[in-house]
Design goal:
single chain, alpha+beta, OB fold (Dihydrolipoamide Acetyltransferase, E2P), 6 domains, seven-stranded mixed beta sheet, 26 helices, 22 strands, 16% strand
Length: 727
């Protein structure tokens, strides 16, 4: 059996610390999942092994493994014992009321409630990771440490910065994760703020808010993506872009990772060498850049983890010391686990370690093999890096999400040229935010094309039919895919086994392509109407007699879902988008329907409530340069192969600003546009969300409601009279 250059690296790596790092990680997991007693026993065993190996003069690797197991077990067993016997543990299991004094470990993370009816998508709660300082439960007071998670209302908590001390009250609950969290507190109301943020946190917030403000010079989608790409700030990110990045395998770009650090430090080192600085000065300058970036992103645990991993990546790729990269990675893993054992089962930490390992172990060999086959050097690296990272991290991603992206390698390849300039220019814009207004905006405009390209890559990747393969989630799914990856990689190392691997791949393609990608019969030839699967909401597509041109009635709640449906149907032109009424589950996807298509007009009924929804429709249409027109009962519209009769609304809409009507929703529902579509397949009655009063109006006026297909009112609500009269 001979090593193949597709797998073998061109230089030998020092792997002596790998067993110690793996054993240390396993000991941490035992502490998190099995408790302090078993971890202590493992530590004692490790100490005996290390002592025996040292006395007998055995391999230093065995001594290192046993020593690391003993040291890690001591730290982890101590911390897990403290969690197991923490005074809040019992109170949390009883659901007791408590008052806590804590200091924040990270930014409050917003939890958005999806829009429905007259309620727009909004942040109602935040999740806050904090460190306990004192607790009061049933008159008993403790001054003690420990990690807690706060579930709190957004009001009063949004805007707090890491390091601030607060007092809050609520009900305790037991944590549902196997980590070092002592308790969860469902906080009531806003906190009592006991301290101001530190100078470092104030500086970071000023720079971050300046970047968000400067990014507003771009269109909404790239404006929200730029802060997420640069500093992991997703607060302004458009939800549809976030969903598309998830489907396209690009979510790692919107979290602070080692890649950000490697890009920035690599640019600084390159500039330092360009101006003639010596190695020491260049490394010092890169180190200062690393510290500054940590301050900008806020020195939270996830950012510090990214900084360490980025330093290892920089060591491997920029300085070229491949032999020292693996020991540096192993040492970084052990140090981070000793500082914070809860990283042991943190998905972000696992993905960072795997991606960095793939970068230093696999990517150089794959790149060298591609160059030997005639691929230009730059293209070889661009292909090898995303391929190696995706292959190694895919099992973890599959276990977490229950899906495998089949387009992730290609989307990351397409995104790669834009990531570095967008990141560097974004950081520069953040730094320039302290200068007079306008300076940062100029830099943001320079970053605009790169960020817009990334938005387009995410949109394209999410729109690929069957680009995501469903996979079993959880530990089983991760282990299953890991086994498949391992078998394929081992087979690729041997020339004889490669034939069997190729045969297996061909067989898989023969099964997958006809059943998943060819999708015979969908969309059906000559289709006239399709109800898009948009979740809770409506989105009905009516075909015209012109290929690729259709009418869309309502857009559902999510831009990504309706856009993907239209893409799969091959709809590139929309003669009209009809919004039956201004509720979130009917207008929320408008931006997705407008994006990338020629749209003649957006049509509304007479209703203008709720005002926020009407403003959102006008804003989205204006951004796409599409006119907004009105529909009234009695109108008749026609296109080749399709006619529409507007049957309702027959009553006046509620006045704008009628809060009760907006909250109740019935009055708005009763002004829904009702359409009768005349198609080659028969009549289709589209009733929006009309309720009993509006249905009675239609029946009293003896409107012709006969139809071959009925879209039942209000998603199948029991308050329906139209059905008996429509068939």
């Amino acid at each position: 059996m001979t090593a193949d250059p597709l797998v073998a690296a061109p230089a030998r790596h020092d792997l002596r610390l790998v067993p110690a790092a793996l054993v240390g990680w396993a000991v941490v997991l035992s502490g998190l999942y099995l408790g302090s007693s078993i971890t202590a026993a493992l530590g004692a065993t490790g100490l005996l092994v290390a002592t025996a190996a040292a006395l007998r003069g055995r391999s230093a690797v065995v001594v290192a493994v046993g020593g690391v197991a003993a040291a890690v077990a001591l730290v982890v067993a101590t911390q897990t014992w403290q969690v197991e016997h923490h005074p809040l543990r019992t109170a949390a299991q009883r659901g007791s009321a408590a008052t806590l004094v804590v200091h924040l470990r990270d930014d409050p993370r917003a939890v958005a409630a999806p829009g429905y009816g007259g309620r727009q998508t909004q942040v109602q709660q935040v999740v806050v990771h904090a460190e306990l300082e004192a607790a009061t439960v049933a008159g008993q007071q403790w001054r003690t440490g420990g990690r807690v998670i706060l579930l709190a209302p957004a009001r009063g908590w949004t805007g707090l910065l890491p390091g601030q001390r607060v007092r809050t009250s609520g009900l305790l609950a037991a944590p549902n994760r196997s980590d070092l969290t002592v308790a969860v507190l469902r906080a009531r109301g806003g906190p009592d703020v006991l301290s101001a943020p530190t100078a470092v946190q104030r500086v970071a917030e000023r720079l971050r808010s300046g970047l968000r403000l400067a990014a507003m010079a771009l269109d909404p989608e790239p404006a929200g993506l730029l802060p997420a790409l640069v500093v992991g700030d997703t607060s302004a990110m458009v939800p549809s872009v976030e969903a598309e990045f998830r489907a396209a395998g690009l979510t790692h770009l919107i979290a602070v990772s080692g890649t950000n650090v490697a890009i920035l430090c690599g640019v600084v080192l390159g500039l330092a060498r360009l101006v003639g600085l010596g190695p020491r000065a260049a490394v010092l300058l890169a180190g200062l850049t690393l510290v500054g970036f940590v301050v900008l992103c806020r020195p939270s645990p996830s950012v510090l983890r990214a900084a360490v991993m980025g330093a290892v990546m920089l060591l491997a790729l920029v300085l070229g010391r491949r032999r020292s990269a693996v020991p540096a990675l192993c040492a970084a893993v052990l140090v981070l686990l000793l500082i914070d054992p809860s990283l042991g089962n943190d998905p972000g930490f696992t993905l960072s370690v795997l991606a960095t390992g793939a970068l230093v172990l696999l990517a150089p060999g794959w790149s060298a093999a591609l160059r030997r086959r005639g691929v230009p050097p730059g293209i070889a690296e661009a292909l090898a890096v995303p391929a190696a990272a995706h292959v190694i991290t895919a099992p973890v991603v599959a276990g977490l999400s229950g899906q495998v992206s089949l387009v992730a390698i290609l989307t990351n390849l397409l995104a790669a040229p834009a990531v570095a300039p967008a990141t560097v220019l974004g950081v520069l814009a953040a730094v320039m935010a302290v200068l007079p207004p306008g300076a940062a905006a100029v830099v943001v405009q320079l970053a605009g094309p790169a960020v817009s390209w990334l938005v387009g890559v995410g949109h394209w990747g999410a729109a690929v039919p069957d680009g995501v393969l469903r996979w079993p989630d959880g530990t089983f799914g991760a282990l299953l895919l890991a086994l498949i990856v391992a078998v394929v990689m081992l087979a690729m190392r041997a020339h004889r086994l490669r034939v069997f691997a190729a045969a297996g791949l061909v067989g898989a393609l023969l099964v997958l392509v006809p059943t998943r990608f060819a999708s015979p019969g969908w969309p059906a030839p000559g289709w006239v109407m399709v109800a898009c699967d948009v979740g809770q909401g409506d989105a009905i597509v009516l075909a015209t007699g012109e290929p690729g041109r259709a009418i869309l009635v309502d857009t559902g709640p999510d831009p990504g879902a309706v856009s993907a449906c239209l893409d799969r149907l091959g709809v590139r032109r929309l003669a009209l988008i009809v919004l039956s009424h201004l509720h979130a589950d009917h207008i929320g996807g408008l931006a997705g329907a407008l994006r990338g298509r020629a749209v003649s007009a957006v049509a509304l009924g007479p209703g203008r409530s709720p005002p926020w929804a009407f403003a959102a429709v006008v804003r989205a249409a204006a951004a796409a340069r599409v006119p907004v027109v009105a529909l009234t009962a009695g109108q008749r519209l026609s296109w080749p192969g399709l006619g529409l009769d507007v049957l309702a609304p027959l009553r006046d809409p509620p006045p704008v600003g009628d809060h009760q009507a907006e909250v109740d929703g019935t009055a708005v529902n009763n002004t829904s546009v009702v359409l009768r579509a005349n198609t080659p397949a028969g009549r289709v009655l589209l009733t929006g969300d009309v309720e009993l009063d509006a249905q009675a109006d239609l029946l009293v006026t003896r409107t012709d409601l006969r139809a071959d297909v009925l879209k039942v009112p209000h998603h199948g609500s029991p308050y329906t009279q139209v059905v008996p009269y429509s068939l």
